[in-house]
Amino acid sequence: MNLFIFILGTVIGSFINVCIYRIPRGESIAYPYSRCPQCGYKIAARDLIPILSFLYLRGKCRRCNAKISMRYPLVEFLTGAMFFLAFIKLGFSLDFLSAVTLISSLIVSAFTDLEYQIIPDKVVLTTAVIGLLLNILIHGKDVLYYLMGSVLGGGTIFLIAAFSQGGMGGGDIKLFAAVGLFLGMRLTLLSLLLSFILGATAGIILIVLKLKGIKDAIPFGPFIALGSIASLFAGDKIISWYFLKYAHI
Ligand SMILES: [Zn+2]
Fold first, then answer.
1. Which are the contacts of 123, defined by CB distance < 8 A and separation ≥ 6?
2. Last residue of a domain, which of 92, 111, 127?
């Protein structure tokens, strides 16, 4: 069963790749054929097997030999691995459905932000709607706690964006508001902290290595994704570790 969930994840990952490529271009994600962006070759079903196709084609288009981005197998593997971990932690449940929904949209957002500096409204809005519905189903009356998580996540980034002028944008605000619906107040607060710590650390490393200047904007989406996924999987452990170590409760 675990293997099946991993494979299911890589198939979803393959669809996530389609989303990452097409949504920022305004193309339909439902239109059936994938084509090589170089030569227009209609990619056959046998070349669309997640991860494996990339390996046996050695990362090149079957017809024109154009290089296929490493992003494709990477996203497929990442999605498979996350689905697998979520299944181990949650089993078949609405919580599992909620977790993989959040994970999938965070992966789309992280990569569209990295490649195009865009977190598409379509993705965030769909995520928020599903998040709200699932949380009403799972938590019933306690849904308020998750709505407050949404206000906390979106509101904090909104304030930072308003006062820092640049750096963070509308996409980041909306994405964190959507994350809040899935994680609730406590874990959203942790996600905010983790995202800032990870983003700042990466920023300092990039500047020290002279890969970026002090004034360059670094997309924040990938750090929202990292911080939120860490909170989703290990949030409670991280919080109790922190309090054991530093607060002596
Ligand atoms: Zn080609």
1. 19, 23, 105, 108, 109, 112
2. 92
Residue list, CB under 5 A from ion ligand 1: 36, 38-39, 41, 61, 63-64, 66
Domain that holds residue 21: 1-92
Based on the structure, what is the number of domains in the chain?
2
Separation of CA 159 and ligand 1 centre (Å) = 46
Which structure tokens are listed for 104?
């999938």
The residue from 92, 111, 146 where one domain ends is 92
Q: What is the pLDDT of residues 105-164, one digit of tens each?
A: 999 999 999 999 999 999 999 999 999 999 999 988 889 999 999 999 999 999 998 888
Helix H or strand E segment including 190: helix 170-208
Specify whether the CB–CB gap between 195 and 226 falls below 8 A: yes
pLDDT of residue 13: 97
Q: How far is the CA of 122 from the centre of ligand 1 (A)?
A: 29
The per-type count for the chain, helices as H runs and strands as E runs, is 8, 0
Residue pair 227/180 in contact (Cβ under 8 Å)? The answer is no
Average pLDDT, the chain: 92
SS (H, E, C) 69-134: CCHHHHHHHHHHHHHHHHHHHHCCCHHHHHHHHHHHHHHHHHHHHHHHCCCCHHHHHHHHHHHHHH
pLDDT above 70 covers a percentage of the chain that reads 97
Contacts of 144 (CB under 8 A, 6+ apart): none
Q: Is the pLDDT of residue 212 over 90?
A: no
Residue 83 has a pLDDT of 98
